[in-house]
Amino acid sequence: MGNRTSGAPAMADVARLAGVSHQTVSRVLNGHPYVQEQTRSRVQAAIEELGYRPNRVARALVTGRSQLIGVVAQNTTLCGPVSLLAAFEQVAVAAGFVVTAHRVNVLDRESITKALERHRDQRVAGIVVIAPTASAHDAVDTVPPDVPLVMVDGDVERSTPLVTVDQVAGALAATNHLLDAGHRTVWHVSGPSDWFDSLGRIKGWRSALRAAGAEEPPIVPADWSAASGYRAGQVLARMPEVTAIFAANDHLALGILRAMHERGRRVPHDVSIVGFDDVPEAAYFIPPLTTVKPDFGAVARDALDLLMARIDGNPIGEVRRTSTPTLVSRDSVGLPADRAFRAVRKRKARGVG
Amino acid sequence: MGNRTSGAPAMADVARLAGVSHQTVSRVLNGHPYVQEQTRSRVQAAIEELGYRPNRVARALVTGRSQLIGVVAQNTTLCGPVSLLAAFEQVAVAAGFVVTAHRVNVLDRESITKALERHRDQRVAGIVVIAPTASAHDAVDTVPPDVPLVMVDGDVERSTPLVTVDQVAGALAATNHLLDAGHRTVWHVSGPSDWFDSLGRIKGWRSALRAAGAEEPPIVPADWSAASGYRAGQVLARMPEVTAIFAANDHLALGILRAMHERGRRVPHDVSIVGFDDVPEAAYFIPPLTTVKPDFGAVARDALDLLMARIDGNPIGEVRRTSTPTLVSRDSVGLPADRAFRAVRKRKARGVG
DNA sequence: CGCTTGATTGGGAGCGCTCCCATAATCTCT
DNA sequence: AGAGATTATGGGAGCGCTCCCAATCAAGCG
């Protein structure tokens, strides 16, 4: 038992059993050339027999890099961040990495800095920061440039490698969808103003409105929760001129839906609503919610790609990757009541009804 | 720069700067006694000056244990598992650990075994398995007994250290709540039959029914999704005798809610529904959902407690911890229509209405 | 005063691995 | 045939830390 501390066999044990040097075992393990087939299989057999598994900690010590990827994300059960984290973990594991996450409760500079430091203590191979606020960027600037790092959903203006979903395009599609349905204008219930996601969605909404020459109503601010959507909805529900709402996410939309229901404003008959995220439940809201679906899988893959390029030391040509979300049309969007009425009248006049 | 591979200063650098041996630095770092106050502060100053941070990988190599806790969980955005994972990470980080998670797509023996092996390659200090199926237990039995391991939401019959929420008690409370409202019996839309959670909830529902002498309707099987809840709801909605439903989770309840709505059966007027989990959105369903709220924070704390006891080698007296969920009463439960009718009639007869 | 005791420090080994370099043995080419 | 490249192996150093085992010095005691 060359190894007295832990029960697990070490490389030396394998070497002894196979009658080779530890170096040869290492070569077999790492797929190096210059090992005879016969030797290789002898080593392989010894590995099998002992149930040997290489100690990644020792490897990390000598190489200076673990196979760990650190993720900093917000501590939330929000579908977006969660899906993203899960998707990233999936692709990272498939690529032979292990993911460790630090969830922070608030996205301020200090918490994020601390999380980053802890990751660096672990000698992670790279870091992914999913923290779409400006303060996150400030914290990230603390990290020396030699640690591979990519941001997800960050500031498009900064130079850090960045992967995002195209919030602007998504919001544009949502707003246009509502406009195309015949609404004069579209109201927006936005996410927290320090999130880049919110900002992008506002921007897309606004530019769709402008392009259509529609009047721009004031933004109704909220956070991401159904509760705040409900509050926003209570206000909106008592304004008869509100016939179309683009909510910054699906939970917000859920809250709005309920507020509308309570005041007897029917969706989509009286007011149309579009959400964002396409949470799995959105199809079962009352009514099923039309929403915008980001491709979290694509974001995760892009983030890993960029990160691996940085880890391998490749100069990454493009430091920005964007994926475009798609509109999922369900039942929460319809004709505005006045236009529908006019349409009916017209048909009646033509003797159709 | 005593350290030529990476830019980060090592213990030797600190020692040199402070004019002491590496051993003394180590002692300061680990809070050992027998270090003079003056020496200690000198070392501290050197640490500060260099921005030294101990290399946890090296420490892990020599001690044979990292400060990592491995978690095996299902890859899902289900609120329950996600909240649990987040809560666990929180408490673990507070205790100075780092959490790495392996999410598996299917909870079969092979996937879980693989995840466990990968964790052990990292020399994690302990493992938490959040995988409430029997196959998970089979996989866990592969792990040698010297690696600290605790299960969450597992089989109460097995001997592995286990932390659970009391599904039976929760289901009992939900069912009794419905029975107390005056319903003759309660239907149950259950989760997948290979989850212990489902089994526990079925058990609680059943025993509540028996205790009340109520007739036991057939179980309506589903998975955890809103989609399957909707399908179950479509069936239930066309059965007039169904006036009360206990759904195994909130998403299921959401699907049922919509199916009821579509067929014009009003909740809670015609049929009452109780869910499970208390997802943040449940308060904004139409109508707000009465549900059962498990205490994920408590589960997380208990799991860490048990795990730390095992890590420290303490013989754990109790290897089972259970927390009882609480009923959150909202608007989806009411009197059954026939009884309400009778109540009205009675009141009318008494000349009250 | 010699001898134990405790406080305070340092020196070295070694965790399990990968890297660099040496050593053969075989093959290729002028 | 001898110099060089190519293939196949082993030996040793060392990653940054913690552990074990001295060594030193002051104080305490018979």
TrEMBL record, chains A, B:
Any single Pfam family the record assigns to this protein: Peripla_BP_3
All copies of domain HTH lacI-type, residue ranges: 9-63
UniProt xrefs under CDD domains: HTH_LacI (cd01392), PBP1_LacI (cd01574)
SMART domains, per the entry: HTH_LACI
InterPro entries: HTH_LacI (IPR000843), LacI/GalR-like_sensor (IPR046335), Lambda_DNA-bd_dom_sf (IPR010982), Peripla_BP_I (IPR028082)
Heme as UniProt keyword: no
Keyword DNA-binding included in the entry's annotation: yes
Entry keyword set: DNA-binding, Transcription, Transcription regulation
GO molecular function ontology, one term from the record: DNA-binding transcription factor activity
Superkingdom, taxonomy of origin: Bacteria
Protein name: LacI family transcriptional regulator
Record lineage: Bacteria, Bacillati, Actinomycetota, Actinomycetes, Pseudonocardiales
